[in-house]
Design a protein that fits this description.
It comes from Aurantimonas marianensis. The chain has about 400 residues and is of the alpha/beta class. The protein contains 13 helices and six strands. It has two domains: about 220 residues; about 160 residues, 2-Layer Sandwich (Alpha-Beta Plaits). A six-stranded mixed beta sheet has the order 2-3-1-4-5-6, with helices on both faces.
Length: about 400
Amino acid sequence: MSEADILAWCVPLALAAISGVFLVLGVTVPGGVSWGIAYALAAIAYTTAIFPGGDYGVAKAILEDSLFLFAMAAMARGISERFQRRPRDFAALAVVALTLLVAGLALVFYDSVPAEIAAVQTGCAAFALFAATQMWGNLQKPVNRALFALALLLAANLLAQNVIFLVDPSPQLTTADWRLSSWAFFFQLGGIAFGLLFAFTALIAIGLDAVERYRVSSETDLLSGLLNRRGFELQLRAATERRGAEGALVLIDVDYFKAVNDRNGHAAGDMVIAGLGALLGLFADRLGFAGRMGGEEFAIFVEGADTSAGAAKALEIREALKGVAWPLPLAGIQITASFGVAAARPGESFEAAYRRADDRLYQAKQAGRDCVIAAEAAAETKQSDEAGSISMVA
């Protein structure tokens, strides 16, 4: 085997190895299986390109075209899966069928390799552009922008190659001499370069996704679905210490939670934690962010609110919680909570804001529970709403 043959075989072997990596990762990674299939098809296509076509030059060319087109379709499908967009499988099949029809007509009736190649590269460019559209709107992360740029670059490169190739004054190529032509080498080199760049970028994206999932899981409370104490503290620090945001910190403690557990079982306690977590999640979507600080204690940060506005939101949460109709084993039982509210000032430490809110929460529990007590930054006055549930204290 010559050095040229060894080099030629390195390409499909490398693509096959990349395919194996994506297929293994595809067990847990969205898009991984589709990308694994794409690289497997590309590996087969480059393998067939090594051998001369002989009397079956046209059939071999159509086979290679099919493999490359389906590889691009699988690549685009993987992009759709990664970005949680709906794949367009029927549209992809239509593009492949139309492209192969044009390529076949170019070879069979006109014996025109340039027209065949231009048709196939146009089809591949269509898949690259479709992949780019699937990424649009999800380009906040640099690695996603890199994938987007690669897709656009590939489409532009393929279409530019078509223009240059079709106006080339060189003698007309046939299926017999295409394999050893400089154009074939140039096109294959471009395809391999893109394939390696895409694989490298996609693997980086997968690695960063794994890091992000680990970060989210380390900052999320599984039972409530909210941030855990660490995650909430990091979010509040980011808001007040780094972004300089103002807001109200509301601490919430479920009343008589131990009695709920003792009388109705731990499953009932878990139901309360999960239910309150879901309720706070609905409020947090509109107001800021919420977390479970441990046990039956929760917190919500109302961004942009002063103490009075934070207390009003706490009252809304209090009333919403009291109105929950719990299923068995809590049917007919009303769950209440106590609330402590304090202002979280720009540049202030998490500990300082938390300490003031926690003091007010303690006062709420001492005052009989099922009430809201807020730290008022102004004068030492006390004020109650009509139901006697809000007190403003210095």
